[in-house]
């Protein structure tokens, strides 16, 4: 069920970004001057100009500062109990491209969840590894895989005296946004995300659609 939900989120969010970016991408492909494939390791992909916004993103030595933030509608399963939650996420991150297309970074996350008379707050910290794949002159795919140490506080408002619990766990973090580069040094992306507890007393799995905003130097 989780894999089916994750695939559904991927299929439902990617077309939304494509609809936004296709006009810009079409304009780029009309210009045949300086068509250079920035990734010689992926000759089957369309040629992307090296001086385009997407072509420049991910070069060796770049530092990307981003923030995954906003309102997420998620389906969460905690120890086999399903329920819908509304989450407010703030996850600033810094990523460094130590070689072309491959990034190494870290993030600090604060997430607040509220559902059916209960709430939770998650504070997480961890590293991540990413790979940027140019698709057109303003589109790229930048999936990232990471691990984090997460501290979760639960509060049940339906219990007299407010029942509170805490849990510390190691999480697997996946985020695969489709990136749109409208101009140099700025990007935004939208895509599915997965946070899976690998340890702790109450193992939680969260599937969400998240927005990322940022820039690079």
Overview of the molecule:
This protein is α+β, with helices and mostly antiparallel strands and 217 residues long. The protein is 15% helix and 58% strand. The chain has an 8-stranded antiparallel barrel. The longest helix is centred in the N-terminal third of the chain and has 29 residues, at 2-30. Mean pLDDT is 78; it is low at 1-11 and 20-34.
Q: Summarize this, please?
A:
Strand 10 and strand 11 (204-216) form a beta hairpin. 15% of the residues lie in helices and 58% in strands.
Radius of gyration: 19 Å
Distance between the termini: 40 Å
Mean of all residue-level pLDDT scores: 78
Quaternary form: single chain
How many helices in DSSP terms?
Answer: 2
| Helix-strand pattern | HHEEEEEEEEEEE
Number of strands: 11
Number of domains: 1
Helix fraction, binned, reads 10-25%
Task: Tell me the fraction of residues in β-strands, as a range.
Answer: over 45%
CATH class: Mainly Beta
Key traits:
single chain; alpha+beta; Porin; 8-stranded antiparallel barrel; 15% helix
Topology (elements, then pairings):
Layout: H1 2-30, H2 53-56, E1 63-78, E2 81-99, E3 102-115, E4 118-131, E5 133-134, E6 139-141, E7 144-156, E8 163-175, E9 178-183, E10 186-197, E11 204-216
